[in-house]
Amino acid sequence: MKNIINQLDSYMREALCLFDLPGLAVSAEVGENGPRALAGLNYKGAAGVKDITTKEPLKPEHVFHMASVSKLFTSAGILALCEEGKLSLEDRLRDVLPYVDIADDRVAEIQVRHMLTHTSGMADVEDYHWDTPRTDEAALKDYATSREVRESRMLWSPSEGRFRYSNMAYELLGLMIAERSGMSYEAYMKKKFLEPLGMEASTFLTFERTGGSLALDDLSQAGLAMPHTKDSEKRIVKEVHYPYNREHGPSSTLTSNLSDLARWAKVHLDRALFPKERYNEIWTSYATVPNNGEGMGLGWFLRRQESYEIYGHEGTDDGFRASFWICPQLDAHVTVVSNISRGAVKKISKKIFEMLIHSV
Fold it and tell me: Boundaries of each Beta-lactamase-related domain copy (predicted)?
């Protein structure tokens, strides 16, 4: 066990330099049901800095913007409402949100299942407006009825089953959660998942960490890693804005840390959130992702690494990259986060899984 921990620690520090990242945080855990050589592994490490301007060291407990990893929670919210009988995967967008319209007759065909699996044919978000964020509860519904949504054009009919990643679809799924639960999207996420799982460092309302401010200095004081990018000369610089806008909560705004995401991983590895039959449905491939051949389940991406099935999600927004994957066969999960746009976190995650697999 000590050997794999040393390997992970060494690789994390190597990757920080190899991929030119300001900061990198890694979690790799294997449960008691994993292979004997790895069972009980609990590694959490961090290297680099939280903020390039202050050089404050990054720590495993620091909070990161998780970007599209948020979609795993939105998917879970939809499925929880299905279990409660308040929603069905066959329900149509127009029936659940009758006030939402898209300038294409094929919108009438879109079902909840299509939206979860990115096969709806819907367009993507054009601009997140991180520079002019809204924090009021009406923001999500206003986006859903905005000109951007109304005038968007569908690429194809949902019946074609073709993959097209759509953040817009996930914003509308979040609004469905609000409509059918009778509370805001963020309140439902908190009540249904974050509080019961003890995810105390997590929230979809970033501004609540500071009493309402989204200023970088205030967020830094609250324990959040700062967002970075690279300038025209490839130098690492701090982003001007933190990536938050309540219009895009369901697709993008979870902030969390390694320990909390380990809780999220464990509840799925234990198949404790939904009945076993539902998990079989969640981790079935309904479409193929063209650029990498991964499968698309109900909110989860599905890939194969050597002889192992691995399920998870990537996330990227201005200033951050996140990679979250679980492997039920190994009873293992790996989370990799970095505080810079386009950081190579998926490559790092794959390497870590390779290390675990070859340690079996």
Answer: 43-346
